[in-house]
């Protein structure tokens, strides 16, 4: 919560839900990452929040960009980034998109299988590639599945194949799970990365880079370590597994860069019960739900802090749901959310720490509800 956002909302009333992002917070977060890991380049994960003003600010600060599509590449270029500051970090790419990225000057690509390597060799000959490996996402509130990455032993073969096809086998990447609250989780992944470096060196192939991925958290309802704790833990793990020959490193913060910079203003549309029983749980319906930007409430993984004008009054559990005609549009039910008993229809509520993965998950006018309105201040 920042005074700048509160003052803006008070001075600029708006109908419907909206996200307001404080760019000063984004600036502070970038500087914190740069200080915590001074020898590591920051590749902001564009998917977290692709607002042009956010990208322009980060580009001006010197950030690089992790992109997942040609559209995101163009957004980063439009923001002022040069092609050498952009990676195509999606391991699942159409060959024509690889060719389009290459035509835009992109030289760094993620892979996790031989088939993807062969596409890049055809569409972007001579490019640099890094292999993404599977790793344990324990401790993360939004764990990543087996959709991306391969076992470390396979990564060796993938990178050797890239080398044989004339690509530059550049490095290794991993992701320890989004909203990772344990700084020590990078240790095991770095052990695997070091093994890959050693094995390929024995085969005459010298890797240069470790992509430490994202996973850096923002504060929701649970406390998180400061970014300096992550920097210290990661540096210690690098020294442990690579000794004095620490490779080039990059990080891909998304949530940790913009999550705490944004607040969604929403409205209570309805408060009701499903029966006349005295102990029946209230249902509180907001004008935003899973399809309007709060997709990360799926399986109740991310629990956002919510402020109301009735804070300080008696609390009671409720089911929190969105406004659409879809039964899946329920945010919190298995673990009910506590809100003031005195909450009323029409009350404005503030959903904090929503600067990341909200606008990008906002559906395009499902049920006629428009995509989440966003303002950067």
UniProtKB/TrEMBL annotation:
Residues modified to N6-(pyridoxal phosphate)lysine: 47
An example molecular function term from Gene Ontology annotations: ornithine decarboxylase activity
Cofactor dependency: pyridoxal 5'-phosphate
Reactions accelerated catalytically: L-ornithine + H(+) = putrescine + CO2
Residues of the active site: 325
Record keyword Lyase present: yes
The protein's name in its UniProt record: ornithine decarboxylase
Encoding gene (name): speF
């Amino acid at each position: 919560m920042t005074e700048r956002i509160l003052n803006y909302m008070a001075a600029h009333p708006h109908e419907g839900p909206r996200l307001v992002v404080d760019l000063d917070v984004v600036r502070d977060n970038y500087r914190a990452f740069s200080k915590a890991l001074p020898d590591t380049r920051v590749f902001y994960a564009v998917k977290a929040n692709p607002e042009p003003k956010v990208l322009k600010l980060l580009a001006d600060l010197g950030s690089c960009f992790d992109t997942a599509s040609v559209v995101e590449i163009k957004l980063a270029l439009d923001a002022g980034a040069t092609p050498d500051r952009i990676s195509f970090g999606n391991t699942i790419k159409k060959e024509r998109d690889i060719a389009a990225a290459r035509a835009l000057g992109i030289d760094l690509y993620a892979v996790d299988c031989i088939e993807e390597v062969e596409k890049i060799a055809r569409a972007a000959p001579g490019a640099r590639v890094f292999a993404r490996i599977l790793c344990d996402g324990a401790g993360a509130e939004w764990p990543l599945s087996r959709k991306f990455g391969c076992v470390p032993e396979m990564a060796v073969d993938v990178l050797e194949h890239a080398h044989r096809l004339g690509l530059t086998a550049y490095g290794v990447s991993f992701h320890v799970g989004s909203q990772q609250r344990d700084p020590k989780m990078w240790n095991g992944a770095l052990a695997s990365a070091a093994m890959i470096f050693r094995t390929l060196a024995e085969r005459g192939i010298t890797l240069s880079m470790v992509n430490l991925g994202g996973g850096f958290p923002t504060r929701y309802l649970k406390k998180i370590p400061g970014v300096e704790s992550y920097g210290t833990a990661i540096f210690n793990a690098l020294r442990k597994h690579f000794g004095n020959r620490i490779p080039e490193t990059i990080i891909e913060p998304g949530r940790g860069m913009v999550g705490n910079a944004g607040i969604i203003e929403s409205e209570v549309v309805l408060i009701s019960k499903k029966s006349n029983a005295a102990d029946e749980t209230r249902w509180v319906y907001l004008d935003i739900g899973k399809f309007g930007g709060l997709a990360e409430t799926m399986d109740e993984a991310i629990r956002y802090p919510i402020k109301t004008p009735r804070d300080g009054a008696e609390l009671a559990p409720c089911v929190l749901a969105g406004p659409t005609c879809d039964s899946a549009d329920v945010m919190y039910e298995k673990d009910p959310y506590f809100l003031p008993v005195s909450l009323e229809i029409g009350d404005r509520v503030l959903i904090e720490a929503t600067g990341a993965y909200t606008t990008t998950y906002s559906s395009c006018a499902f049920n006629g509800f428009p995509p989440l309105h966003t303002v950067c201040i």
